Automatic annotation (TrEMBL):
One of its GO terms (molecular function) is acyltransferase activity. It is found in: Cell inner membrane. One of its GO terms (cellular component) is plasma membrane. InterPro entries: LipA_acyltrans (IPR004960). Its main location: membrane. This is Lipid A biosynthesis acyltransferase.
Length: 262
């Protein structure tokens, strides 16, 4: 039923309302100038189908049981997380807005004695923020405003609590003195570096998280270890950008193009 509805919503959002089509098209032109316009239109159309799916899947998850969501969102390599937690240190998880990133909060169901904490950017529309928090908290996800995350981590450290702190590292922040600029999909853009800075401050391990679509409504989630390879102050952020860009180039329709990325 959800996917029948998704097909209907796709027609309304993409064909009739044309929700953010100009922005999506502009993003794709900047990211893939080497592609023909017809190829970009195929990516655009497939993206809107994917977008409608993950939007409705997010709402659907409110009524899903733990068993139901774990059948559809499988955490494949939990052992990496448990091995790193043996250091008795929390972990920083870097992710992008790729595939079904909304269900990533549900991986907390797989983990014992550790809390998944996601740093999020508060929305100006408080109704939608409340709805977003409800969706993401439904399956063992705990959310903290990115403006309060430093104080929260300091408090958790004082209590000796082990957590996994998740950061969406591909968002475009407002430029500040802590903003890091680099090329991403052919465009020079600013990146959040809070995850890497926090990991450096507290000597946390950093892992990359990646969701992949298996088939409609089913996904796998994996984590990938990472270590500094150079003396660059944002070496891990650089590695992450290369990591997520590789995934986007392989399956461009699964990236979230409706936001102003560039």
């Amino acid at each position: 039923l959800v996917y029948i509805l998704s097909d209907f919503v796709y027609i309304i959002i993409y064909k009739l309302i044309k929700y953010r089509v100009k922005l999506v098209r502009s993003n794709l032109e900047l990211a893939f100038p080497e592609y023909s316009s017809s190829k970009r239109l195929i990516i655009e159309s497939n993206f809107y189908r994917h977008f409608c799916d993950i939007m409705l899947e997010a709402f659907k998850s409110i009524g899903m049981t733990k068993k139901q969501i774990l059948e559809r969102y499988e955490f494949k390599n939990q052992s990496i997380v448990y091995d790193l937690l043996k250091k008795n240190k929390s972990i920083v998880l870097l992710m992008g807005h790729y595939s079904n990133f909304e269900w990533a909060m549900s991986v907390g169901h797989y983990l014992d004695n550790v809390k998944g904490v996601g740093a999020y950017t508060p929305l100006t529309n408080k109704y939608f923020e409340k709805l977003m928090l409800k969706v993401r908290k439904r399956h063992k996800g705990y959310l903290v405003s990115r403006y309060k995350i430093h104080d929260y981590i300091k408090s958790e450290e004082e209590k000796n609590n082990l957590n996994i702190y998740g950061f969406a590292t591909d968002q475009s922040p407002r430029p500040t003195d802590k903003t890091y600029w680099r090329k991403f999909l052919n465009v020079n853009v600013p990146f959040f570096t809070g995850g890497e800075r926090i990991a450096n401050k507290y000597d946390y391990s950093i892992v990359f998280g990646l969701a992949k679509r298996v088939k409609r409504g089913y996904y796998t989630f994996k984590t990938f270890r990472t270590t500094k390879k150079t003396d660059h102050p944002y070496d891990i952020t650089n590695q992450f950008v290369e990591f997520i860009e590789k995934q986007i180039r392989e399956h461009p329709s699964e990236y979230l193009w409706t936001h102003n990325r560039f």
